[in-house]
């Protein structure tokens, strides 16, 4: 799956001349957490988040506080060290970027123009769908030897019971000698297939 399949294309953007107050209004109105800042060519200049604005807003405990800070241009607090991806990038590669850089959103650019955005929410939703966790199902974890053919052998057992497999993931074990296969099976009663797998000495 590629980034273009999951990215949000209908974006709310601002230019760096807009004020912090205008950004705050858009964040609240659209119930979003990030706004990309672009120039007249649609090239990304920065990102502002709800956290950036919350940190800049005067505390309610400050005496004589006012919201004059909110009249400053958004360029005064936007993040400019921006990591971007492209529509043809793979979703799993983009997920690694989120993890490595501790970011909450990733602008997607094409020919230097902003064309989309991926957030943690889109990523999480995508992986839930890929794993089949949003469907009635049962997860069965099987520890197998780290050798060819183990997945095919267990898949045949599911076929014998006419049970469809939503997804399969391979998880590393504590030792190199074994791997753990995580099956998401389309059944809510997996007792028979589990018993069959156990009898097959897995």
TrEMBL record:
<protein>
    <submittedName>
        <fullName>CBS and ACT domain-containing protein</fullName>
    </submittedName>
</protein>
<dbReference type="InterPro" id="IPR046342">
    <property type="entry name" value="CBS_dom_sf"/>
</dbReference>
<feature type="domain" description="ACT">
    <location>
        <begin position="139"/>
        <end position="202"/>
    </location>
</feature>
<feature type="domain" description="CBS">
    <location>
        <begin position="7"/>
        <end position="68"/>
    </location>
</feature>
<feature type="domain" description="CBS">
    <location>
        <begin position="78"/>
        <end position="135"/>
    </location>
</feature>
<dbReference type="InterPro" id="IPR045865">
    <property type="entry name" value="ACT-like_dom_sf"/>
</dbReference>
<dbReference type="InterPro" id="IPR002912">
    <property type="entry name" value="ACT_dom"/>
</dbReference>
<dbReference type="Pfam" id="PF00571">
    <property type="entry name" value="CBS"/>
</dbReference>
<keyword id="KW-0129">CBS domain</keyword>
<dbReference type="InterPro" id="IPR000644">
    <property type="entry name" value="CBS_dom"/>
</dbReference>
<dbReference type="InterPro" id="IPR051257">
    <property type="entry name" value="Diverse_CBS-Domain"/>
</dbReference>
């Amino acid at each position: 799956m590629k980034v273009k399949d999951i990215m949000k294309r209908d974006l709310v953007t601002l230019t760096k001349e807009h004020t912090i107050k205008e950004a705050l209004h858009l964040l609240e109105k659209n119930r979003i957490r990030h706004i990309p800042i672009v120039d007249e060519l649609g090239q990304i200049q920065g990102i502002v988040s709800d956290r950036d604005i919350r940190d800049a807003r005067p505390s309610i405990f400050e005496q004589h506080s006012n919201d004059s800070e909110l009249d400053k241009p958004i360029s005064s607090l936007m993040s400019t060290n921006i990591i971007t991806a492209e529509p043809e990038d793979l979703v799993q590669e983009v997920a690694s970027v989120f993890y490595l850089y501790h970011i909450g959103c990733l602008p997607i650019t094409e020919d230097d123009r902003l064309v989309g955005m991926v957030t943690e929410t889109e990523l999480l939703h995508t992986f839930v769908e890929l794993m089949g966790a949003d469907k009635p199902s049962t997860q069965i974890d099987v520890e197998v030897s780290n050798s060819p053919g183990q997945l095919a052998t267990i898949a045949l057992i599911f076929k014998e019971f006419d049970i469809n497999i939503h997804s399969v993931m391979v998880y590393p074990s504590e030792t190199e000698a074994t791997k753990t296969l995580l099956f998401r099976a389309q059944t809510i009663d997996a007792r028979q297939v589990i018993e069959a797998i156990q009898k097959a000495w897995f």
